[in-house]
User: What shape does this take?
Amino acid sequence: MLMVYGPQPFPLFAQQSAQVQVTVARANIRSGPGTNHRVITTAARDETFAIVGINAAKSWYQIALAESERGWIAGSVVTVTGSLDGVAVTDGASLAAAPTPAPTVVPTTAPAAEAAGGVIVTISRSRVNLRGGPGTNYAVVGGASQGEQFPVTGRNGAGDWYMIERADGSNAWVSASIVRVTGDAQSVATADAAAPATSNAPAQTTSDAPAPTATPAPAAAPATNTNTVSSSLPRGIAAGRLLYSVANDDAKRWELWEYDFGAQSSTKVADWRTEVDISNDGRQIVYFAWPGDAGEKAGIWIMDADFTNNRLLIPGGAYPSFNPGGDRLVVDGPNTTMYLINSDGGGLRPLASGEYPAWSPVDNRIVHRDCVGGSCGLWVIDANSNDPTARQRITTGGSDGQPSWSPDGKRIAYISKEDGNFEIYVVNSDGTNPVRVTSDPASDGLPVWSPDGRWLAFRSDRGGSWAIYIVRPDGSDLHKVVDADVLDYWFF
Assistant: This one.
């Protein structure tokens, strides 16, 4: 079934046999045949218009918009149906029923012919940040999806960031590393950007001494923590490996990958697997299998460390976490309730309300997120407790979540947007000494510790697209590890 929507040809031209149909997501309609003419409106994919004129080069079509109003559209963004015989050749400007505004609309998917100077960028990642200036120290002002195209209106001196024009006429900046360029980028003039506004940076805060069972709002990281990204990985973790999930945007599925720090390369492990945890002895891996792979057996599974011997632990559930011995787990269950289960599938029982559970690697403490009486934060409960209310509050931030234990059980990493956007924090396991680890206008999440406790790995879109980074727990020595896209309907 074909449905035509949007502006229809004015009846005066209904008998004209030739029409154009837009073939891109959004195209400019201009006052004359060329990009030097102002934009008067835009058209969406599949919209059709009657052709009332054509330029001498036959590269632009004059189209009917409404009574006494016409516009020009590039031949590269449309298909033509019908005969062009009898269509007038003209290079005249379009007539408009009313004065048209200055250019304020530029298509997000304009082809090269529609870009000023013929230079456009095409987004090559599933979802990227657009920023207020040429660098990740500038605030995120919007986003763009894979395949979207923008005219390039400037570049920074280094040529690693492009200034683009968005559909509303405003400018934004995008990293050159996450786009494909059509045209001669060197022909684009360099553009200056204002220094990042100090109000865009997360404000530094201080905190009072914590109450006996609660933690104050996380304090800001030290002023020396600038989170500057290093261009190379540290040699101190050359023997390590990292499991992480990646979104295959074309297939619309999650994939599990393994990164080898020594080889600095990644290997795909399996499809439709996320939320992994590794037992303390390194022999078992627990994960969530999505319905796309497991069908009715979607849920929590366990496999050996060599990715063999997969077996279903429990249908449903999420965020599994091993106990120190590897023979029991805690999982996120229905109705925001945590459950305990043996690694052989037996002994299932509810523990307490909560989500994002993480079992301490050294004892029976389980940290989790919960909201009690309308107040949310991180809590710690004993896995052997029969009283679901007998627990200690660790943080008080309403957005706090995704906790992860340090290998010695003394500290907990987590995310919070108490300072305006999601950042990584670390707090002592008794709720004292909260410290902000990351400081960037982008989103940081899913922190996990290295086995020696010297590093935190996390996911972030600070570079304009999602990737895995590592950083010291004090916020120093930040390194990008590997790109790792996410699906649009997932936050991390």
Summary: Helices lie at 291-294. The mean pLDDT is 77.
